[in-house]
Amino acid sequence: MSDDLNCTCYRLRRADRRLSRLYEAALVDTGVTIVQFAVFAELERAGGMGISALAERLGTDRTTMTRTLDRMEALGWVAVERADDARLQRHVVSAAGRAVFRDAWRGWRRTETAIAKAMGGERLALLWQLLGEAEEAARAAQAADIHAAE
After folding, report:
1. Tell me, what's the pLDDT at 126?
2. What is the per-residue pLDDT for 20?
3. SS (HEC) of 4-66
4. How much helix, strand and coil, in percent to the nearest 5, is found in the chain?
5. Mean per-residue pLDDT, 81-110
């Protein structure tokens, strides 16, 4: 029998803390946090995105995403593109941000490769599948709680 707490959230948070420290250490020389790295990756993948869509994609709230983007904009890593409708704007990675992201990518890639090697490709794929299923289970549980309160 394990001495671990039999709690899914605890186990996920513990793994998250250990993995986050590993990735943060790989990025430290670039000045990029793992959260900022994820923002870079999503903005580059999509070619730019609004705050709400980006927050949804990264699983965070709009307020937290706004603070992150404000910091990245102040560093010159992200720029805001405004549409004709002033309410619509999207964030894009600037030229300076692309250079920083390229440097950060190398550290991230080394760490990602080390994790994949340590776990094995099949186990890592299974982990990703299970994490996706855990997210869906949490959404379903949250929806059930909302409907039960009505």
Report:
1. 96
2. 95
3. CCCCHHHHHHHHHHHHHHHHHHHHHHHCCCHHHHHHHHHHHHHCCECHHHHHHHHCCCHHHHH
4. 75, 5, 20
5. 91
